[in-house]
Amino acid sequence: MTMPTEGWDWGGIRGIILDAVGTLIEPTPPVAQVYTDAAFRQGLVVETSEVKRRFHQYFRVDEVDEQLGPLATDEATEYRRWRRIVSNVLPDLPEPDRAFAELWDHFGRSTAWRAFDDVGPAINAIREAGLDFVIASNFDGRLRAVVAALPALAGCEDRLVISSEVGFRKPHPAFYGVACERMGIPPDRVLCVGDDPENDVRGPERAGLLGLLIDREGKGPADGVMLPSLTELIRNLSGSEVGRRS
To answer: In terms of pTM, does the model score above 0.70?
Structure first.
């Protein structure tokens, strides 16, 4: 169920944190298909549905690095983490190093991603509302090249807050703190918008921010405030005094 945002103090919001993957951009082809194709190039036939199941399983459980601890990260940690994920999703590959290199390179290219149709208008609406914003993601440094090459996100390269550069992944409170500091806005005046209930809503709320779920597929939890797309966010921004009063 999508819950409306009536009653929110939109006028108190001064900044917005936008999640990247699943909120602004998505992989194309989908991740499971890319992994399936990588396996097939090595003569390994695996069902895409099974690859998808494994990916979701191992992506979620692999959040603890043996060297840094829970939710702590850097570029080397992310590289190790993705090697583990690929190995777990495709355990029977004859040449696992080759497959990992192909996949790492693939998802670092802008051609592997597309921006949702509502992203460009949403970015424009946020700017027109007089709000500051950042794009904050648990991606790694590869996100910079992706964002730089997508027309809908033109000019957003200097607004990236990336977990591997910050040192902590969402939902660690330090991550949201860095995002707020980057904008120079206190947490209680910042709205976090994303597609993950924990990373983009509950985590930010524990850190003192507002959280808003973008539920594009209608699969979100029954509780909390959520909208079906960024188009609805635009309508709320356009119809309020958000960002216009001091």
So the answer is: yes
> In 128-152, which positions are buried (b, 16+ CB within 10 angstroms) versus exposed (e)?
ebebbbbbbbbbbebbbebbeebeb
Parallel/antiparallel/unpaired status of strands 25-27 and 113-115? antiparallel
CA distance 194 to 133: 13
pLDDT in tens, 88-139: 999 999 999 999 999 999 999 999 999 999 999 999 999 999 999 999 999 9
Phi, psi dihedral angles at 41 (to 5 degrees): -65, -15
| Lowest-pLDDT range of 30-34, 64-68, 100-104, 206-210 | 64-68
**Residue partners of 64: CB distance under 8 A and separation at least 6:** 70
Hey, what CATH class is 10-24+116-238 in? Answer: alpha beta
Q: DSSP labels for 162-198?
A: EHHHHSB-TTSHHHHHHHHHHHT--GGGEEEEES-HI
CATH number among 3.40.1090.10, 2.60.40.1730, 3.40.50.1950, 1.10.150.720, domain 29-111: 1.10.150.720
Quickly tell me which residue has 């009063």 as its tokens. Answer: 245
Dihedral angle computed from the Cα positions of residues 161, 163, 168 and 174, in that order, rounded to the nearest 10 degrees: 20
Tokens of 52: 């998808």
Label residue 62 by pLDDT band (50, 70, 90): low
